[in-house]
Amino acid sequence: MSAPWHTLYPANVPHEIDTAACRSPLVQFLSAADQFSQRPAFGNFGCYLTYEESRNLAENFAAYLSQECQIKKGDRVAIMLPNVLSYPIAMLGTLMAGATVVNTNPQYTPRELLHQLQDAGPTTIVILKHLMPTLSEVISDTELRYVITVDVGDLLSLPKRWAINSLASFNYRNQRTMTAVASVPFRKALSRGKTFNFAPVQIDPEDIAFLQYTGGTTGLSKGAMLSHRNIAANVLQISAFFPDIVEPGKEVVVTALPLYHIYALTFNCFCFLHHGGLVYLVTDPRNVKRFINEIKGLKFTAISGVNTLYKMILGAPNFDDIDFSRLKYASSGGMAAQSSVANAWQEKTQIFLGESYGLTEASPAVTANPPEVDYFTGSVGIPLPSTECSIRDGSGNELSAEEIGELWVRGPQVMRGYWQNEAATKEILSDDGWLKTGDMAQMDERGMLRIVDRAKDLIIVSGFNVYPNEVEEVAASHPNLVEVAVVGLPNEDTGEAVTLVAVSNSDTLTESEVIDYCRQQLTGYKKPTRVIFTDSLPKSNVGKILRRKVREIIA
Fold this sequence. Notes:
single chain; 555 residues; alpha/beta; globular
């Protein structure tokens, strides 16, 4: 169908952005640092770094990478950190050095970490000190030569730094034994970098800024190559879509989603930095009482999260302590927002919970509800400026309004492809630039999009992708499991729950034993929360297990 959504744009929202201005998110940050040098850029645990301080620290780290770690343009640097002040400094410093950031989930097991490090091939990693036992199990099988360790409170002011680091050490007191690995503390790296003369590196907009790992729909994770232009374009697209919301130098965004996740990285970090805003980092939002105590007096203007986060905040006993007097925008993405949560949020805060759609391969934002929509509709809205959306059938033919098909996307935010995986790139990117999302959607006559279902087998747990093949591979390695199938079932708290259906050769094997086995090799959100034993699994005539039938049997 034709693209009617421009009729839904307010008069001050352009249909297109100036793609020539999409140079780099680093350029956008540096421009803001010149204009808002003394404004706070990042906050965490009640401590703040100004734009000038952030730029200087990032330059020190870039100099250290260049001089001590011999990082050259195009090299990869892995960053394995939660939301702490060291993350944006390490990330910006890596970009300044002309290198590519390999965002690495701190929850990874050794098996998952090894795959990513071997695929991306970084020679340097910045890692939370308490995660070193995980790294020590695999480092000998990687190309890593330099390890930089971070304490949670490294960039906090004293005495809070001591207090937070002591608390973190207590929380990680039961870590596995670690093999000795030579490393340098992050604060020492910054101090060393300060002694060098920083030489800026010329960055081309098509240079790879981030390798953002995602599985697409099946198999091992792949590195989406997101260029400087991709991220910068998405920042400008989002900014152009909400021209009346942003006040330069005055915005404060609560960032509970991890910055290693593309949603928070682009929207919370780079969008708000572009406008001289404060990115307030929450390190552990799962401790909801502490989370609320930390932000209750912040007078923030924006917040983003997945449905799970909003539901958790709404149910907290100290929810009413939060000051919502300056809140202007709440964004929900990563997973479908539930109407009950969206309506409860709006009732209590008087602010609409705006649902949007995106995916890693699109940096990530594709659509959002128009600014004038002020109630929950279940729609993910309309395409951002300079973004085309098309609903296609299985043969790639465009469908009419209200017909359900696969959502295809084209725009300057679409990735360059998958890192060192030409075959997978060709499967998802057409010759004329269309990204085949794998998500089923429909578009109404006005151009409003609705996601009908995620890709056939993908499971979404609190906004994180879980790929059945990976979980099945781990479960199938159990000596007492003969056949396995993994499906997602609806869950009120997490959206979906990972459910393992298995055929066992043991009469004594228990559900808890299987879950414990999987826990050793899978990140927490990937492990099955339920195991159902059965005598057989439904199969096709060629012996392929039919997950659709499995779902029907146990639902």
